[in-house]
Amino acid sequence: MAKANFDVPELKEYVDVPELVEGTMAHLSPFIAKPDHNIPLGFPGELVEDWHDKALEKLDDLRSRYRSLQVYLDACVKCGACTDKCHYYLSTKDPKNMPVGRQDLLRKVYRRYNTFAGKYFPWLVGAEDLTRETLDDWYSYYHQCSQCRRCSVFCPYGIDTAEISMAAREILDSVGYGQKYCNEIIAKVHEKGNNLGLPGPAILDTLEGLEEDVEEETGVVVKFPLDVKGADILLVTPSADFFAEPHVDGLIGYGKVFHEAGISWTLSTTASEAGNFGMFIGSYENMRKVAMRIRTAALELGVKRIVFGECGHAWRVAYAFLNTLAGPFDFLDPKYPVPQHICEFTYDLIQQGKLNFDKSANDDMTLTFHDSCNVARATRMGDKPGGQFDIPRAVIKAVCNNYVDMDHETIGEKTFCCGGGGGLLTDDLMEIRVKGALPRMTALQNAIKEEGVTHMAAICAICKSQFTKVLPYYGMDMDQIVSVHQLVSNAIILTGQNTDEDDADDESDGDE
Amino acid sequence: MSTVYALLFIVATLVLVIGLARKIVQYAKTPAPLKIATTPAPVTQAGVVMRMFREVVFFESLFKGTKWTWIFAWLFHMALFVVLLRHLRYFTDPVWLPIELIQPFGVYAGFAMLAGLAGLLVRRIFVDRVRYISAPSDYLWLLVLIFIGISGLMMKFVAHTDIVMVKQFFTGLMGFSIGTLPIDFPLVVHLTLVALLMILFPFSKLLHVPGIFFSPSRNQVDNPREKRHLAPWAKAMEE
């Protein structure tokens, strides 16, 4: 059990909608970005003196560039449909963590300075001046939003709090009041090519290690190529896949699938990161710059296709934004969508009967699947709406005998965020991360009790890291979260692979 | 007094039409730089039309969200729609047959509308989360609509207004000639509040009416991989 200096919510059978209690999370703010983090991103180093006017100017600028922001600021009727939909509200009771409560922090300022009613009758429409307290509230509560879009599913106008929170973070960045975690990471991507700042040689070293492991385990030489010109496929994957558990087991799975497919592939040092934190801070410019690395790498390596590894927000930027940010991709093979998700890729091969599995290899587990928010509500897989739910499940079911879904109110388009998305995956926000996981943990625990589930699979690096950290707070084991391609890796039978009797020896090798 | 009301309705109509047109132009002109449809989303334009239809006519998302609010909100809006159709007879001569036919339903709709509004008001007062997010204007809008409904029904059931005269006044006004309006208390309340609503419409949360049609999470086709989507200001970055 992990120790905490806050109250970890108790798991019950259901998550009841709590009565609100004001200010329960007002104390929590992430670390503030330093000049070193801000300046490479094009933001002022620290909070500027004329932040008040600059923030209002930025709001005007964003309203003129984003229809979503303008419409969403105007259209809310305060119907309350979203008020009980946010995992952070359900677990903290803080009304500023209700989607509309969060939006209103910005909306009240918009109304005060930009609408007739708010200028002349502020008390009537809840308009308020932009004060230092408001600015701090923005900083605190817009960093308690994981931009998961669950609220947007239920809003009669489709108001997406993620859009508001991205805009608010961009305003904060524009006055030099950004968040350390996101900005430091974006600066690292700009400089090194991945969120973790891993240099090329370190990646190469890891990949060679993986080749050895797989050969030892299976007797088959499976290559994990880096910067190989002329490969068919460029694989772009979250950098956590290079070292963290259970991510790396997923990477091994991708490698085995490519190997069996007989298609040449490569990773890239300069595009060694699928994640794009530019989205979290709402900065089109930074998001574009990060996305352009992928275009450049694809051109330099002369690949024909781009495939993305398991990562939720990365898949959103890849699926929904990459063509916009870094397209057109007319230099790639037009027979395939650009980009493709690794689950789409594996699923196609399964459909064609090109992969052989021993499903019993996963018989020690009963699996369930956590739909990651960005995949579920901001992207698609395959050519039919909802493919983002069906395809990963089809892959899991093709490689596992035991699979059950969690409570249907908590999966699919209604899925609950892991609690760590949207740039919140940092230790200084641990309290909100642990609390925000409550609805998912509740559904998981019910599936464990009622269906005998032992493990939960996910296709998002943030979800995997978050659950690894958070599961122990709720009395579960950190290794109960697995990668989908880890399951594929377990079950896939490589051509020429060692037979069963060799496996017994491998068991004794142990983990390092 | 009739002249005052004639002018009031000319002003109200102008404010409503020009104000709404300005907002619609603003929404239409503001680019949506990224594909942000809430998925699963339709992959064709026809699918988007269907999604929008379900949203506008059935309040699909609200139905998913909260059943009580959905019942009251849907009842109110659909009843209001029928009531508005019924009112067309005060502005057209001869009256269009379908409008003739719905006249009796329009009266029931008046009561249904009030029931919906009352439900929404009760919810706003008694659900702590909704109370927290409500500003005075949120209550006032409900009260304005409730009083419009009550005063309208009063003219039918309590103190009959000379409705033929009212019709002559409005059809006359549409040809810019000012006639005489019967000055009855319920009619005065009814018309004053309707004019107020028309004037405030473009400056208020009633902008949800045009807003829904411009909401990118609902009106975008889910085809970002197939078709490149680029806002003018984003295109400028590429040059």
TrEMBL record, chain A:
InterPro entries: 4Fe4S_Fe-S-bd (IPR017896), 4Fe4S_Fe_S_CS (IPR017900), Helical_ferredxn (IPR009051). This is (Fe-S)-binding protein. Signal peptide: none annotated. Keywords: 4Fe-4S, Electron transport, Iron, Iron-sulfur, Metal-binding, Transport. GO terms for molecular function: 4 iron, 4 sulfur cluster binding; metal ion binding. SUPFAM superfamilies: alpha-helical ferredoxin. Residues 67-96 form the 4Fe-4S ferredoxin-type domain.
TrEMBL record, chain B:
Residues 73-209 form the NarG-like domain. It is a multi-pass membrane protein. Signal peptide: none annotated. It holds the Pfam family Nitrate_red_gam. The chain crosses the membrane at residues 6-25, 68-85, 105-127, 139-159, 179-201. Keywords: Cell membrane, Membrane, Oxidoreductase, Transmembrane, Transmembrane helix. InterPro entries: NarG-like_domain (IPR023234), NarG-like_sf (IPR036197). It is found in: Cell membrane. One of its GO terms (cellular component) is plasma membrane. GO terms for molecular function: oxidoreductase activity. Its main location: membrane. This is Nitrate reductase. It comes from Sedimenticola selenatireducens.
